[in-house]
Design goal:
The complex is a heterodimer of chains A (295) and B (521). Chain A is of the alpha/beta class and 295 residues long. Chain A has twelve helices and twelve strands. In chain A, the strands form two sheets. Chain A has a ten-stranded mixed beta sheet with strand order 3-2-1-4-5-12-11-8-9-10, sandwiched between helices. In chain A, strands 6-7 form a two-stranded antiparallel ribbon. Chain B contains 23 helices and four strands. The chains are: A alpha/beta (295), B mainly alpha (521).
Chain lengths: 295, 521
């Protein structure tokens, strides 16, 4: 599994270009083409109450986006990569997923947007919705984030995101896929941190011997993962923890100075997936690091 | 822009002062009108009424009014004291809907909610200052008894029909297109004009993407599916649901069937001839791209929820489970149950329908939010207008009631206004005009059954006028602009506001309505 073609979705917010710049590091791992995508939200130009469609406004927005993308394309070209522009009007998530399908990209990159509590309850954030539904890996980019830690509000700039990726695994098929993807980061990642957490619910009812056996088995699997990563020419370290999975992944990512979190998308039934989200979505939501989810 | 805002703010300040002044320094006759009003008011909860009675009214009268409040229904007397200029916010609201989309569409698109709030406040603030508890009662009444069920019905129909998607390859021929229009016309009365339009407009556009002349197709789609087709049940078109909320029975609207058939058949025949002419002239064949997806209706379980909506509305018109009082407003228990069931149907549709189906319909909440924002302004600002009309010859709009006297007047005047103002408030305006004209002072619960039976032809004229003429312009009925927007986005050139009227409405609709007049009114 290699990342050769990327869909980069932007809303032209502050630092969007910096986020693109960071992404182009993927060239070292085989990136060849970037599909720059901008979706004009239908609500911005359509359904004018008793009016119809703002054709001129739509054309103007398209032109502005095209001009900005032209500058970005020059930059991408200067890095020796190909690029393509897709400007669409419609429902944001549906369009991003449709363009990704049409272009057969290997990775969707999109920024995150905070939404109101009500919107989160029903639809989740726009990115979480894409994470839930995409059949392709999705990177939730977070170039500059503010987050709270130990009662303090901190700001973090994620500018070398592929340097120390943390692979959080639950041994599932998506985790295997994430492992395969991370193996393609040769020449890009200095060290891969492989983490597994024995969930609090699983460890709770176990006696010491059973817990020790579980730890041994988990460590064996972690070593196997590390071995496979090292075979691909990358350096790897393993970390085993016990506790609440989301919190443990966040703790490990901070303590081991990870630069991004890579996970297989947690499999849940549709109700949990849609209304509650799985561990992977929770991590993507709360971590200050970029999160790459692999289905 | 700043100047406009300044003038609007100034107006907002001046009107309440003017109104309060007029109220405080009114003539003796005015004062007695108020006192008389307090004595004759009915249907108000005692505390509300007691608070509403002007301080100058003696205690005996106030107590009498409070006692009276527990009996009977109808409160037409406020309409006798309200000045004509109290209708200015309503006119302003409707003119905003008519003119802003034409003159400043971008401003309107981003600020229509504020415009609606402005006009609502322009009415509500001075109204509350002048009539206190009575005004509060009227505002709460129109919100709880009209606005809330109105929006809930539209929301549920919109949500459920948005979960049904027609997939597959269609090739636009005159027969197929006429068939789609016919199906849409038949469906509109049962899933709402908005629902039927949403279900069929995208397949209709896709089927005809290869055709050169598509504009007239969309215009006839607006005529038939987004308007005329919705005339048979209260679910079909918002004006009829407002009638239902005011006591018109569910199946009464079937009396409009002959009128609807005449217009529908005329328009379908004209459409077929036009389409055949263009089809032959164009000589364009559907591109054979080798991909022919079989026709498939997905999300069909939503028809169960649609049946649930029909059943809920029907139920609320049949059973009588007594009344409950909410915020001092009496409402039938079955109406609350109906609203709850409609919300339930919408939620079930949301939870059980795949998001990909809704995305296939390009489903968005925006149109329904727009309607919710705009109609709160419409409903609040129309309060004085409705009360004055209900007062009949004693109100300031007596000239209108006297001038509009025959069914043909009702049909054309309701229609002419529905064409350029939204047809829902227009319907309610003339519904009240008829009540005021024939049954002035009579409680609505008694007057409406008489209107349905003894004066049925007038109600038919109002109903058909409101529903049919909604098709005359883009602003006549809410689904019109939705269809226009979807068509333009899909690359179908649509006529301008006046182009639509001059090239299509005057040519095809008005002659049809003349025939309806000759046959029925």
């Amino acid at each position: 599994m290699r990342i050769e073609k990327v869909l980069f979705h932007t809303r032209f917010r502050d630092l969007a270009f910096n986020a693109l710049e960071v992404l182009l590091e993927l060239k070292k791992a085989g990136l060849q083409e970037v599909v720059l995508t901008y979706v004009i939200p239908r609500e911005e130009v359509a359904f004018v109450p008793y009016g119809g469609y703002l054709k001129d406004a739509a054309e103007q927005m398209e032109e502005v986006a095209r001009l900005r993308f032209e500058q970005w394309q020059e930059f991408i070209s200067s890095k020796g990569l190909r690029s393509k522009v897709r400007i669409e009007t419609g429902t944001l998530n549906a369009k991003i997923l449709a363009v990704a399908e049409e272009e057969k990209v290997d990775l969707i990159v999109t920024g995150r947007k905070k939404r109101s509590a009500f919107e989160k309850v029903y639809v989740g954030s726009h990115v979480l919705d894409i994470l839930r539904r995409s059949v392709r890996p999705v990177l939730m980019g977070k170039y500059m984030v503010q987050y709270e830690w130990a009662g303090e509000v901190l700001t973090r700039v994620n500018d070398h995101i592929f340097d120390r990726p943390l692979l959080a695994t639950d041994w599932s098929k998506p985790s295997e896929n994430a492992l395969e993807l991370i193996k393609s980061f040769k020449g890009l990642a200095r060290k891969v941190l492989v983490v597994h957490n024995v969930g609090a619910k699983i460890s709770k009812g176990l006696d010491v011997a059973a817990l020790r056996a579980l730890e041994d088995e988990s460590q064996r699997r972690l070593d196997d993962y590390c071995g496979r990563i090292e075979e691909a020419g990358l350096s790897a370290e393993s970390y085993l923890s016990v506790g609440k999975t989301t919190l443990e992944i966040l703790r490990q990512s901070r303590e081991q100075k990870a630069t991004m979190i890579v996970m297989g998308r947690t499999g849940k039934d549709w109700f949990q997936e849609y209304w509650l989200g799985g561990v992977s979505h929770r991590v993507a939501e709360v971590s200050e690091l970029p999160v790459l989810l692999v289905p | 822009m700043k100047r406009v805002i300044f003038v609007l703010v100034l107006y907002l300040i001046i009107v309440p002062i003017k109104w309060t002044t007029a109220h405080a320094s009114g003539t003796e006759a005015d004062f007695f009108k108020h006192a008389d009003y307090a004595q004759n008011s009915r249907c108000l909860p005692a505390p509300v009424l007691a608070a509403a009675v002007p301080a100058a009214v003696d205690g005996e009268s106030a107590a009498h009014a409070a006692v009276e409040a527990d009996h009977g229904h109808g409160h037409a007397n406020l309409g006798e004291v309200l000045p004509l200029w109290s209708c200015i916010p309503f006119v302003g609201m409707l003119l905003s809907i008519a003119l802003f989309p034409l003159l400043a569409p971008e401003f309107w698109h981003h600020h229509f909610g504020k415009v609606s709030a402005f006009w609502a406040a322009t009415l509500a603030v001075p109204f509350l200052a002048a009539f206190k508890g009575l005004a509060l009662y009227e505002i709460l009444h129109i919100i709880l008894a009209d606005y809330v069920p109105f929006i809930i019905l539209l929301w549920s129909l919109y949500t459920v029909s948005g979960g049904i998607l027609l997939r597959g390859t269609l090739r636009g021929t005159p027969i197929l297109n006429t068939g789609i229009l016919l199906i849409g016309t038949l469906l509109a009365s049962w899933m709402g004009t908005t629902g039927a339009a949403m279900l069929l407009i995208r397949p209709f556009l896709r089927a005809n993407a290869h055709r050169k002349n598509r504009t007239f197709m969309v215009v006839f789609f607006i005529f038939l599916v987004a308007n005329v087709g919705g005339s048979l049940t209260p679910l079909g078109d918002p004006p009829l649901f407002l009638g239902f909320l005011h006591g018109v029975s569910f199946f009464w609207t079937l009396k409009i069937l002959p009128h609807m058939l005449v217009v529908s058949i005329l328009l379908l025949v004209i459409y077929f001839l036009l389409d055949t002419y263009h089809y032959r002239k164009e000589g364009v064949k559907a591109p054979d791209d080798g991909v022919k997806e079989p026709l498939k209706l997905v999300g069909t379980h939503n028809f169960i929820f649609l049946a649930g909506i029909v059943g809920s509305v029907l139920m609320s018109g049949i059973v009588d489970w007594g009344e409950v009082t909410t915020l001092g407003i009496h409402r039938a228990l079955q109406d609350w149950v109906r609203d709850g069931l409609l919300i339930g149907m919408g939620i079930l549709s949301m939870v059980t329908t795949s998001i990909t189906i809704r995305e296939g319909n390009d489903f968005t909440w925006f149109p329904i939010l727009e309607v919710a924002y705009l109609f709160i302004g419409i409903f609040i600002t129309m309060i004085p207008c409705l009360l004055i009309l209900k007062a009949g010859p004693k109100g300031e709009l007596a000239f209108l009631i006297q001038g509009v006297s025959r069914p043909v007047h009702y049909f054309w005047v309701t229609g002419a206004l529905s064409a350029f103002l939204d047809n829902a408030p227009t319907y309610l305006t003339f519904f009240n005009t008829a009540l005021g004209s024939f049954f002035a002072g009579m409680p609505e619960a008694e007057a409406v059954p008489l209107l349905m039976t003894e004066k049925a032809v007038y109600l038919q004229a109002i109903s058909t006028g409101a529903v049919f003429f909604g098709a005359i312009s883009y602003i006549g009925n809410a689904p019109n602009f939705m269809v226009r927007s979807i068509a333009e986005e899909a690359g179908t050139p649509m006529p301008s506001f006046f182009g639509y009227i001059l090239r299509f409405s005057l040519l095809f609709l008005i002659p049809s309505f003349v025939i309806v007049t000759l046959l029925f009114f």
